[in-house]
Amino acid sequence: MQALPSTSLTDSPHALRPRVWGWVLLAPMLAWLVLFVLVPMAILLVYSFCTRDDLGRVVFEFTFENYQRVFDPIYLRILGRSIGYAALTTGICLLMGYPVAWFIARQRENVRNWLLLLVMIPFWTSFLIRTYAWMTILKGNGLLSGLLLSAGVIPAPLEILYTPAAAIIGLVYAYLPFMILPIYGSAEKLDNALVEAAHDLGAGPVRAFSEVIVPLTWPGIAAGILLVFVPAIGMFAITDLMGGARVPMIGNVIHNQFIKAGNQPFGAALGIIFTLMFVVAYTLAQRRGRSSHP
Amino acid sequence: MKPIRLLPLLAIAAVFATAARAADKELNLYAWSEYIPQTVLDGFTKETGIKVNYETFSSGEEMLAKLLAGGTRYDLIQPPDYVAEALIKNKLLVPLDYKKLPNFKNLLPEFTKMPHDPAQKFTVPYMAGTVGIVVNTEKIKEPVAGYKDLFSARYKDRIVVLDDGRELVVGAFYTQGIGLNDITPATLEKARPILTAWFKNIKLFDSDSPKTALLNGDVDLGLVWSGEAAILWNENKKFHYVLPSEGVHMFVDVLAIPKGSRNQSAAHAFLDYLLRPDVSALISEEFPYTNPNGEARKLLTPEQLANPASYPKTDRKLDTFRHLGTSGALIDELFTDLKNTK
What we know:
CATH class of the largest domain in chain A: Mainly Alpha
Largest sheet of chain B: 6 strands, mixed
Strand order of the largest sheet of chain A: 1-2
Number of strands of chain A: 2
Shape of chain B: globular
Largest interface: A-B, 33 and 32 residues
Number of helices of chain B: 14
CATH superfamily of the largest domain in chain B: Periplasmic binding protein-like II
Oligomer: heterodimer
Distance between the termini of chain B: 78 Å
Order of helices and strands of chain B: HEHEHEHEEHEHHEHEHEEEHHHHH
CATH architecture of the largest domain in chain B: 3-Layer(aba) Sandwich
Structural class of chain B: alpha/beta
């Protein structure tokens, strides 16, 4: 009931014009969302309840079978592993990215811009090319192995390419900038006087960090976690190339349903469940975030 | 006033007319990646003025999915034999006009009227090959004769295999004496324990370029396409190619015109161009698979013909894949499960 007066206010003729303009300006974005998010999701939803013929064409015959298969232990384990890899990647990115972002944010402005440029330079080449470059570095007779061998650090060629460790290295490398940039955004705005005040009031470095710096840069940290975790779960190219395609990720499984197994309805069901999980996790995180800051 | 109002319409009509003419001079080709040399495409354009739009895929299933989804109207596609069989059964291919293919006679008879196209109405073989074992003889001193030797525990983490569930399942079938197209839940359950043991020893799954890991020395053994093995042999004679003793799968990649093709005459022209001995020999030079073109083989060097991977000396019967229907999904599920429990 409290909201009523305000709605009648915006409905007044004077407010109409800016509102129309607002919609006009929003139109391209809305069209984009409808065409490339809502419509594809609707197609996936319809497909996920369908069957297929022997060529893999979708047949519009209602079935729940695809959803039953999603909850088969095979696929649940793959999902669990994908979440584990993504969580590990996010954790490493946070540990490596936070100090870098903080360091950049504390520099003079022109140094800052140069450092930011360095963070972004890798985006100038295709990520596939960068992944192949990492494979050249990590392979048995590659750069890293050769360097360590000649320095006498290791006795035999390094066996790291095509292992889970290599896959994690690839993932961390690919997503690190997505952690650095949002944290930098928060850290740059942070007023140094607040940190000094914490020290003046007797807080040691640990306490100043955990009770002043982290809460003030939290929006950047949260954005970084989301930007790394979500795409890392679905990634399949890096785990295939650097991990040797030995353990499947949920992204591989969905990709395979469309490309190899000719089972689009099942792939669609996996995609729908996957998206729903994100929506639920995101709303829960949002709600918790709101309740902790009343 | 009237002519002026008509002007935009005329302009639109003119645009459509030029677009139609442009379509005459273009060929939409959908083929395997790393399989048709650019020099061959350029040569065809130079001779005929027809531009070739070469779109690529990396598995027969991928090709099938994209072809059926519509989108681009392809004029010529390059399915593997068993996918061509499925397309023929579902009446999705256009019969060939042999009057436009005078060079068809260059093909060796054993590559025509094959099981996927017994009436020889729809497909032209492009290249053939086998799936076999590559051994780096500098590192592996003992003889490796077949699947059982390849996957023995002593080569743990020294093996690359094709990232292709069906090829591996067939390998397990061979060791059990099961026919390679006999894919049922029961036969797959028999293959499961064998594959479980094999999967523990595999270092890497790669269908696109399994030769890379062998060349880099990251692995010493491989289950690969014969064309990849032939390139390795050309690179270094230490890479030996072995046809597995338990049984050998042969594949033939064919060319066919899908229904909906807008430029069938260009498709025929390109087919006939590829069947010309000099052009076919050019393809063999870059991609040393087994050339089904008898006249082209006469143009190859003795060294090319002596490549044991391209032209294996064997009188054994080679098996071919048949269309599986929906049981392909059973293989995918088993394959995913095996990788998962590895």
